[in-house]
Write a structure and sequence with these properties.
It is built from five helices and 17 strands. It is α+β, with helices and mostly antiparallel strands. It has a 17-stranded mixed beta sheet that branches. The radius of gyration is 23 Å and the shape is globular.
Length: 342
């Protein structure tokens, strides 16, 4: 019975998480040829178009688009770039940069609010700032700060990047501060040329990276099983509050891993599309990587949906306990009033 109830929660939360028409971001500026990919279809981007979770925005040659967040923050998408709306929920408005260059100008975050930019290799946790992000064809990532600060993190390490600093995050390596002041577009052009010269080297790095994500995903699956076995049906609201805080931290880690994996998988797809007719060696190398990427992201997605279902079950149980406690207090007050009335 408990297993059936849990499966039902997974289905409910999946519908909520991946509902196709939950909007927050919108397109506020377009120049040139810009496409919105939604549900397998390509749509011409126009000003005012609302974007939902899972939508991708693609700019072609000599084209630019700008996205507007609900708090009036902006994200400019430069030419030959592809981004994806990663998550819009729980006070989050997160995007993934699959390939290309973007510039974000983010307003100061309010309490409880979160904004992140994912690349195939790192999570950029934003603290109210202005910065560039570039992602090369190899999926190596570059961050150029202009103002403010953000944290870069991946399975290999974490750093802070502050005013006028740069950082590079290569596939299967920890984030590193970089003294090279190259602008992000020039950095990407150089990185793309290096990728064409040694594609097999980058494919091997990708295999290593995906293996790391897969190992983390397996460990997270085991942790999720423990949460499943530990029923949320407890009578102590304080204990549930403590468990929910712990669970929230676990949700954040699993979500970041899922969106990292999802972005990496999309980046591999992008490589296959770009080089299918150009470089057979690159296509063959990354076609093998794609099989591993698909497997990893499916497991990550299952973990993400499962942990969100558990979070929802805890929340519901907590509210039930609080409701029953309130009912008990009201009944006691009624009994006292009856005694006084006699």
């Amino acid at each position: 019975m408990r297993k059936v109830m849990f499966i039902n929660w997974v289905l409910i939360v999946t519908v909520l998480l991946f509902a196709p028409y939950v909007y927050a971001l919108e397109i506020s500026f377009v120049v040139g040829d810009v496409i919105v990919e939604r549900d397998g279809k390509e749509n011409l981007a126009v000003v005012g178009m609302k974007l939902s979770q899972g939508d991708a925005v693609v700019t072609k040659n000599a084209s630019i688009a700008e996205l507007l967040y609900s708090d009036k923050s902006t994200l400019r998408i430069f030419e030959n770039t592809k981004i994806k709306v990663a998550a819009i929920q729980d006070n989050q408005e997160n995007v993934s940069v699959i390939n290309g260059v973007i510039k974000a100008k983010i307003s100061k975050l309010q309490k409880g609010e979160s904004k992140k930019v994912y690349t195939p290799t790192t999570v950029c946790a934003i603290r109210g700032t202005e910065f560039f992000v570039a992602v090369s064809d190899s999926s190596n990532s570059r961050v150029n700060m202009e103002e403010g600060s953000l944290a870069l993190a991946n399975p290999y390490g974490e750093i802070s990047v502050n005013n006028d600093e740069q950082a590079t995050v290569e596939v299967a390596k920890k984030p590193l501060l970089d003294d090279n002041p190259k602008n992000p577009e020039l950095w990407k052009n150089t990185a793309d040329k290096d990728f064409v010269l040694e594609p097999q080297k980058y494919a091997e790095s990708y295999n290593e990276y995906l293996s790391t994500l897969e190992q983390r995903s397996s460990m997270q699956s085991a942790e999720i099983e423990k949460y499943k076995q530990s029923s949320a049906k407890k009578k102590d609201s304080k204990k549930i509050e403590k468990d929910m805080d712990e669970l929230e931290n676990k949700v954040a880690v699993i979500a970041d891993d899922f969106f990292l994996g999802d972005c990496a998988n999309a980046a591999v797809d992008n490589v296959l599309q770009m080089y299918k007719e150009k470089k057979q060696e690159i296509f063959d190398s990354f076609n093998k990587v794609k099989e591993q990427a698909d497997r990893v992201v499916q497991q990550q997605k299952a973990n993400y949906e499962a942990i969100m279902a558990i979070k929802e079950a805890y929340r519901k149980n907590y509210e039930e306990i609080k409701g029953k406690h309130k009912e008990s207090i009201e009944k006691i007050k009624e009994e006292i009033n009856k005694v006084h009335d006699q």
